[in-house]
Structure formats: C-alpha cells, structure tokens
Design brief:
- This protein is mainly β.
- The protein has a single domain, classed as Beta Barrel (Porin).
- The chain is 9% helix and 57% strand.
- It has three helices and 19 strands.
- The strands form two sheets. It has a 14-stranded antiparallel beta barrel with strand order 1-2-3-6-7-8-9-12-13-15-16-17-18-19. Strands 4-5 form a two-stranded antiparallel ribbon.
- A hairpin with a 2-residue loop joins strand 14 and strand 15.
- It starts with a helix and ends with a strand.
C-alpha cells in the first residue's frame, strides 16, 4: 500500500501541472536540447524507456531504473544529428553502493561548433554594391568571416536510486545546465524524480517527472528561460522463448510548453507524444530494435561482447537528414 501511495503522489503532482503553470511565462524551447535523450539503444527504441532498468542511460530516462545496476557500469555515446551539423555526446558512470542503492553521474553536451560570423566589407553600403576602396580598386561589397564561435548546451547530472522493496524503485536527479553562445552564457538547475514498479517478473511500469520544480535558466545578458515540468509514463513487457528475449515498450510523454504546432496530439497547453519500442535479443549477444517516437520511425542494433556492448541507432528527418548514434557500454561486476 505504501508503494502505491508513493507512485500516486508523483502522478497527482503531474496532473496539477497544467493549472500551476498556466499563470507562468514559460519558454517553449529552453530545454529542447535534452528531449532526444541519451543512449543509442534508447533512441532505436523510440525513447520508450521510462520502465527500462539496469542501463546507465536511465540517468536521463528514469533514474529509478538505475537501482537494477550491479557493480560498475560506464557508457559513452556520440551522435551526429541532422546529417552531421550537430554533435550530441553523453558520458555516464553508475556504481552500485550496496544491494539496494545506486549512484550515477553523467555529462551531456549538444554543440554546433565553428559557426561563422560575417560582416560586410563596407558596412555603409548595401550587400553586393560595387564600390571603390581606399586603394582605388573596384570591389563588390560581399560579406566575409571575421570570427567563428561555438554554440553549446551542457548538462551535468548526479542521480541516486534506491530499491524500496522487491517491486518498487525510486530515483532522483539533480541537473546543472550550462549554455554558451559566443559572449553570452547561462546557468540553470533542475530536478527529476521517477519510480519503477514491477507488477510481475515480466511486466514493469514507470513514471518520471522531469524539471519537477521547473528549471530557471539565467543568461548573463538578463534574459530568463523557464523550462516547465514534463511527465512520461511507460510500461515494458518481457517474453522469453527458445533463446530469444522479446521486449515491447510503450510510453506517453506529456509536455506543458503549449507547443501545439510541434505535436500531433494536444489538450489545451498539454502536448502528448506516444512512443513505442520493440527489441528482439538472441542469447544476450545480438539484438535488433525498432521504435516510433511520435510519428518518427527509429531503428538500430546491438552487439554484446564479454563486458562490452556496442549499440547503434538512427532516426530520419525529412528536411534535416538522418541522426546516427553510437554507444559503448562497459559492465564491471563487483565480485
């Protein structure tokens, strides 16, 4: 009964979010750099990973899932989004402190590097105008690159997860956000809380509220961004048959940014995005995966060699090209 109350409190808070946020001036895209998530396996499953356990990528998807990790697990990911225009990287480490508690730290960065800034050769004349320079030569007033800058968005995360019972795990994360674009920079602090409940050995359910108290990002130029909370509910079902393990996952993400034009489903200020995933694993050696993130198809594969797992995932974009992700995970058991 106590376990059900813990989950119920988390869900009740999320149901009140649209009312609480209605009077606030929210930023629709302040936290968009985090929405893709981390881990090539997770991407190929359509991001339907709220009920997933035992993967250090849970530091993003649901910190409660970290409690299932044994020993020490490390994961690194590199992603080239939108045909290589944007780099998205992740590094996470999780360590089992005792039989019921896991601590994890992670860092992620999204960056567009070497952005050219241009000026006109003669700023007093229109673009393309022909003029005579100080040496008496005719010139075309074309732009030139006078400086290159990097635009980066970073997050450092520390997570703690604990098994409350055989069925219930709870977890929380604190996230420090750092943004920088040329001479401008910003800092922010946010919190996530989640739960995973095993209804039976083959079925688990999960819930996470990201940016639980809203996340304020303050820029050095005086601008303020407020990232509102978002809710994600999910379930996972496992089926084992003749050496194969089939895992099906289904999530629903609810955001409260009032982004009606970006989502197919919305209810007032609430945007809804369904996510689906399926993984077929053969003897823990090779896995094929497919998913659906909203209306976007995702797919990938994984290979497990001794203590190392290599995962690949991708999803296409009709205008900005295909995003590719590669992850490497190292699992060291504490014997």
């Amino acid at each position: 009964m106590k376990n059900i109350k813990n989950i119920g409190t988390l869900c009740l808070y999320s149901l009140l979010l649209p009312t609480v946020l209605a009077a606030q001036n929210l930023t629709k895209y302040g936290g968009s750099f985090l929405e893709t998530g981390v881990g090539a396996r997770s991407l190929s499953l359509g991001g339907a990973c709220t009920a997933m356990q035992g993967d250090v990528a849970s530091v993003y998807w649901n910190p409660a899932g970290l409690a299932a990790i044994e020993g020490l697990q490390m994961q690194g990911m590199h992603s080239e989004r939108f045909a290589g225009m944007v780099n998205w990287d992740f590094l996470g480490v999780a360590i089992q402190k005792n039989s019921s508690t896991c601590l994890a730290v992670a860092f992620y960065r999204l960056g567009v590097d070497g952005i050219p800034l241009t000026r006109l050769q003669n700023p007093d004349l229109p673009l393309g105008e022909i003029y005579v320079d100080e040496d008496g030569k005719k010139q075309i007033n074309d732009p030139y690159v006078f400086k290159r800058i990097d635009d980066s968005e970073n997050a450092f995360v520390i997570s703690l997860s604990r098994k409350q019972s055989r069925q219930l795990s709870l977890g929380g994360s604190a996230r420090i956000i750092r943004k920088a674009a040329g001479e401008y920079s910003a800092w922010g602090l946010g919190f996530d809380f989640g739960a995973v409940y095993s209804i039976k050995e083959t079925f688990t359910a999960g819930v996470i509220v990201r940016d639980f108290t809203s996340t304020l990002i303050a820029w050095n130029g005086g601008r303020r961004e407020l990232i509102p909370p978002s809710l994600q509910l999910g379930a996972a079902y496992f089926l084992r048959l003749a050496g194969f393990t089939v895992q099906t996952l289904a999530d629903i993400r609810a955001g409260f940014e009032n982004r009606e034009s970006d989502t197919g489903l919305h209810l007032g200020r609430t945007n809804l995005e369904p996510r689906l995933g399926c993984e077929v694993d053969y003897h823990g050696k090779v896995a094929l995966r497919a998913g659906l993130m909203g209306t976007t198809f995702t797919a990938g594969a994984g290979f497990h060699l001794s203590i190392i797992s290599i995962d690949y995932g991708f999803y296409p974009h009709p205008e900005l090209g295909t995003t590719h992700q590669i992850s490497a995970t190292v699992q060291l058991l504490d014997k």
